[in-house]
Amino acid sequence: MSKFSILVFSALLLGIAVGFLFHPNIGRGYEIALYLLIFLIGVDIGGSVSEGTGRIPKKALMLPFSTLIGSIAGAALGAVVMGLSLKYSIAVGAGCGWYSLTGPVIARYSAFYGALGFLANILRELLTVVLYPLLIRHIPKEAAVSIGGATTMDTTLGLITKAGGRDVALTAFIHGFILTVLVPFILPIILGL
Known about the structure:
Blueprint: H1 3-22, H2 29-50, H3 58-82, H4 86-94, H5 99-107, H6 111-135, H7 141-144, H8 157-164, H9 166-191
């Protein structure tokens, strides 16, 4: 595990411990911090665009669709192996890490699969935090963005930029943005089948 991964994971565990022990009321502090982080990454992306290094790669436009197809295929395989409902499992996979949407939308149809959708997609985000810095040692950093799904536009963007470098930030943002636009349309279609 890289030093950066250890620091990120340690910060997460420390935050969980502080929240569990002290129950601090941070209100919308996390939301403000997230907007500030996205703003700073936007400034960095804008700087790279003005330098001529930030052109939108074609791969950045194709990656979200590959991520969605791969997520659905993986969920379908998991459903078959574990004997779960194919329709609901595919919907869980199609959430692409957007746990705050996936869980409640699926819960309208099934409380069990709604909870599974929430947990599976929050786990995807947590695994991105831990695994992205490790994966980029073995696969292209742009391809590794897919692990984060829709979260690459916001919550995992900072981590991906730090671990993968400025040049992957634009790809990660576009990837997350496209998935964030697609998921709310895809989920009801799958659940309506």
